[in-house]
Amino acid sequence: MTPLDDERRLNERLLNYWQSLRGERPFPSEDELDLDALEPIWEECFVLQARDVRLKTGYNFTFLGSTIQRAYQSGLIPYALPGVVAPEASHLSVEFERMFVQPEPLSSEGEYALPEGVTLRYRQVIVPLSHGGPTVEALLGRLGFRIYGPCEAM
Question: Is residue 30 in some structural domain?
Answer without folding.
Answer: yes
